[in-house]
Design brief:
about 450 residues; alpha+beta; Beta-Lactamase; five-stranded antiparallel β-sheet; 14 helices; 20 strands; about 40% helix
Length: about 450
């Protein structure tokens, strides 16, 4: 019994009706949704019936003998379902099992992580789970309108309470027969993670844009996926070529055509070299300096990245190479000057290991530290000097002077009548030097006589 479309009395408890929870049929529209799937289109309101009218509606299924009777008297409405087929024990058991199954499914959907609402062809609600019921009417309608506007999944941002962040929902709309379903999943955390990822990529992009090292990242399919402006400057390749996402081989073909690769002897050997380079980079082993035909020198590094990607770094080290060559030239010149000196000189580093020994010293002592497999220590040099030049205690004093980085000068008479001057000096960087200079007595006397 209904009064102004509000349920006021019933002879069957709602919980005994299949697919109905307590309170689900408290109004005519809700009961109308529950009966509509069996008896077809029903009046939107019981007040649509004429006063005193009795309307019998048969079930839409030809095998179903049930009849729905609707009547109206004054402001009251009466709804009655009559089924002449008396249910036997098996039918009652089937009905109970069906009701239990529906209840179980409703419980599962109520605990589902997404919101679900089922609509009739006119867009009226037939059923919704607890998550969808948690949205206020305005939000629920916004979800439905957004979902039904498209056939694909759509994201929707809804303002949260004053103290909470906005909520992002992904909504999708599907059709199943004469009903429709709207699914809404809260993807706020996913959306926030994607936003952080975009910000991180933007930050990396800005960093890459300011790098002087050229960067080329190839995806697992070996197509160029990312490059920075420095790569354009170093390779001279046009931006459209790089933007077309060339393959690795096409990229290196373009470098060869632009003479930004070491000059190959022939194409076959060049292809083998490139394939070896790609394999080495994929294994994290590629590092090589390219001497280009134009005199430039590039250091190329290949590194593997997750998911099969490969990154190549191109660094212009021309100035570094030129500076290193200049330093090597200066060092060679200094060594030549020391080798041309009449004085034997040997230098010890901070760890008292021989770091330099000129030719006169090598000839005087019969040693060659550069050709030695192991480093030559101060103690070993002192031992050689004691055996070759003099066995008195002067070399103990020389050793202590070197260890203390103190100045010392000693005179060592030699068996041939000459004199050997030994000087110990301190050098920058906590190094020390021993200088050995031979002086012949006859030469000094002759010089004094002339004076």
């Amino acid at each position: 019994m209904f009064q102004d479309d509000i349920l006021v009395d019933q002879d069957t408890p709602a919980e005994t009706m299949p697919g109905v929870a307590s309170g689900d049929i408290g109004t005519w529209p809700s009961l109308r949704s529950w009966l509509g799937c069996r008896f077809g289109p029903l009046p939107r309101s019981l007040e649509d019936l004429d006063d005193g009218e009795l309307r019998d509606l048969p079930a839409t299924d030809a095998d179903d003998m049930a009849t729905l009777s609707l009547s109206r008297l004054n402001d009251g409405g009466r709804v009655q379902v009559t089924d002449p087929a008396r249910a036997g024990p098996l039918d009652r058991h089937r009905t109970r099992r069906l009701g239990a199954t529906i209840t179980r499914y409703q419980t599962v959907f109520d605990k589902a992580p997404c919101a679900v609402r089922i609509l009739d062809p006119a867009g009226r609600m037939l059923w919704q789970n607890a998550v969808f019921a948690g949205y206020d009417p305005a939000q629920a309608q916004l979800l439905i309108d957004t979902a039904t506007a498209r056939d694909t999944a759509t994201r929707l941002r809804m303002p949260g309470p004053a103290t909470a962040e906005d909520r992002v929902c992904e909504v999708v709309h599907i059709r199943a027969g004469d009903v429709r379903a709207v699914f809404a999943t809260d993807v706020t955390q996913v959306a926030n993670a994607e936003a952080l990822r975009r910000e991180f990529i933007q930050t990396l992009t800005k960093i890459f844009a300011n790098l002087t090292t050229g960067l080329a990242v190839f995806d697992r399919h070996r197509n160029l996926a990312l490059f920075n402006p420095a790569l354009l400057d170093l390779t001279g390749l046009p931006a459209p070529i790089l933007s077309s996402q060339p393959s690795l081989i096409q990229f290196f073909d373009s470098l060869r055509d632009n003479r930004v690769l070491p000059e190959p002897k022939n194409y076959a050997s060049w292809r083998n070299q490139i394939e070896t380079m790609i394999s080495s980079a994929a294994g994290g082993l590629y590092l090589e300096d390219w001497n280009l035909p134009n005199g430039m020198t590039y250091r190329v590094t290949g590194r593997p990245h997750p998911d099969g990607a490969i990154a190549f770094l191109f660094e212009d080290i021309t100035d570094n190479v030129s500076l290193a060559r200049h330093f090597r030239s200066q060092i060679s010149l200094c060594e030549a000057v020391l080798d041309a000196s009449d004085e034997a000189k040997i230098v010890f580093g901070p760890d008292n290991i021989v770091s330099l020994c000129n030719r006169p010293c090598r000839q005087l002592l019969g040693i060659d530290p550069d050709a030695s497999f192991a480093d030559m220590t101060l103690r070993e040099v002192v031992t050689v000097c004691r055996d070759s030049l003099s066995r008195d205690g002067v070399w103990d004093r020389v050793e202590q002077a070197v260890l203390n980085r103190a100045a010392l000068e000693e005179t060592l008479p030699q068996p041939d009548g000459s004199t050997l001057i030994c000087r110990v000096g301190h050098l920058p960087g906590n190094s020390a030097i021993i200088t050995l200079l031979a002086q012949h007595g006859t030469s000094r006397s002759h010089a004094k006589a002339q004076a």
